Amino acid sequence: AVVSTQSTGSDRSSTGRVVIDQKCGKAVLRGADVYSPGVKGLPHLQTGAEVSVHIDLARRCKRGEKKYAGETVHIADGVLQMTRFDIFKRHITSGVAVQITKRKIDSPS
What we know:
The chain is 13% helix and 30% strand. With 109 residues, the protein is α+β, with helices and mostly antiparallel strands. A six-stranded mixed beta sheet has the order 2-6-5-4-1-3, covered by helices on one side. The longest helix has 8 residues, at 22-29. The protein is globular. The model is unreliable at 1-14 (pLDDT under 50).
């Protein structure tokens, strides 16, 4: 069971926090990377930046938010492969946005 928590930003720098939707979160828990359609919130960062990946539990993060303060759970860490501009302005709708390097929660098989 996943325990819902209010993220404090202590997992990594709060500037490196990517918020994803629940469908994407389930895929990440099963072993996938984060693909661009699942990204809801992302600050201005360069590709190659280390980020923490958080599921939006309340489903209130608006697409394109730079800093979301709602209820999330930190599920993984990874390396950013696409920028905000790529995802929200150029509307790249396929491809890996965050390559996962470490999962925080083990998913049952």
